[in-house]
């Protein structure tokens, strides 16, 4: 079993080519996730959430910036060490249950297969039945996958991700396309993995009900961290380079190009629009 690992990114940038053009998926992400914390990544499609998750999983290297998981710096990790990291430390649960499962194996066989790399490296792994029980999948673990519901498949996909007892669980939209009951089962199993094993968890989600259940959320906008939620309170986040993304309702009220003045107020600051074209903010 791997110990829970902290995650830190500094100035993380990722650029990819699309139709002959460079596109910045991430534009300077500074993120700190303490060991054993549960964090949700929110934001519109294309904002960079899944790219960030893939980088944390070591699927590819960033264009610039650094990623630390524990003491490992992923962007400079040799291929052999990166393979060990993916086998022993970080598990990635891809969006769509079937992408995580070998179709001709049962759920039990999938979990056993997912442990082979870690076991070969000498990492102790839990019993297959223990993993299946932890997500509530014992009752259908030996059935052909073709007979299972979407919710059952997603629980097995989670069991596969938890099979090597990782220190970090990265889950991309684990509750998408599920009904209310299945969604609650999957979310409960993820939170239980954190509570019982202390696993650090990063979850990408579009579901506001799922986000509301998470103790901390981070909103990604235009490749940057645009806000953070803690215990139901929403906050803007000042980046390392001094960039301050405005909350959505203020961005909508102030058109691009608006000049603002930041005035000191007792106990805080006031944003005051200065141009003739700026929209009036609603009274609080």
UniProtKB/TrEMBL annotation:
Name of the protein in question: ABC transporter related
One Pfam family in the UniProt entry: ABC_tran
Source organism: Nostocoides jenkinsii Ben 74
Signal peptide from the UniProt entry: none
Domain called ABC transporter: residue spans: 10-247
Record keywords, A-Z: ATP-binding, Nucleotide-binding
Example of a GO MF term: ATP hydrolysis activity
Stretches that traverse the bilayer: none
Cellular component GO terms held in the UniProt record: plasma membrane
